[in-house]
């Protein structure tokens, strides 16, 4: 599936996206709870880059800190509109810069203290392009800046993957997602999503200008890592 096709899917889902995934909120709640602890030592005037921000749930969570500022990057205009509306409703829009487009169209100023990138890089099937994507994030971080990222990850040839996939599908079935959508999801994981072993995802991140990532979270197929921009990494 090409970039434009993925964008079109999210364009169509924007209005109902949060409701569709509401029953999986405990996973996000736990991830964001840990995220808050990982970002606790950021400076009071931190600038945070949210890559593939979607409807802005993680931005809203982090914006509870009243002095942090955010750059929200999202290629889907309808998804970014929902994010902007959320930020306006919660009174944090004045601390946000909304950028409709891909990361390569955002200035590589190296001015951010931290970044988030949740369930985004998995849609980049070519591993070199995936590495380039993480390098683009590192270029927009200050020296020593940190990245919290997550992706679906597993060794798809392993028995473990079969167990996790069955549990994942059962969870989706309980989340008001149609059987047709679940079938499409199974096929997408085989053809359109770069589900790689967790160690391989970590190595791609490390090769992109970061110190060895630390896995800080797993829920089913979702794995999340904390990575620090490596010293000497050129902006």
From TrEMBL:
GO terms for molecular function: methyltransferase activity. Residues 48-145 form the Methyltransferase domain. It comes from Halopseudomonas bauzanensis. PANTHER family: METHYLTRANSFERASE, N6-ADENOSINE-METHYLTRANSFERASE TMT1A. Pfam families: Methyltransf_25. InterPro entries: Methyltransf_25 (IPR041698), Methyltransf_Superfamily (IPR050508), SAM-dependent_MTases_sf (IPR029063). This is tRNA (Cmo5U34)-methyltransferase. Keywords: Methyltransferase, Transferase. It comes from the Bacteria.
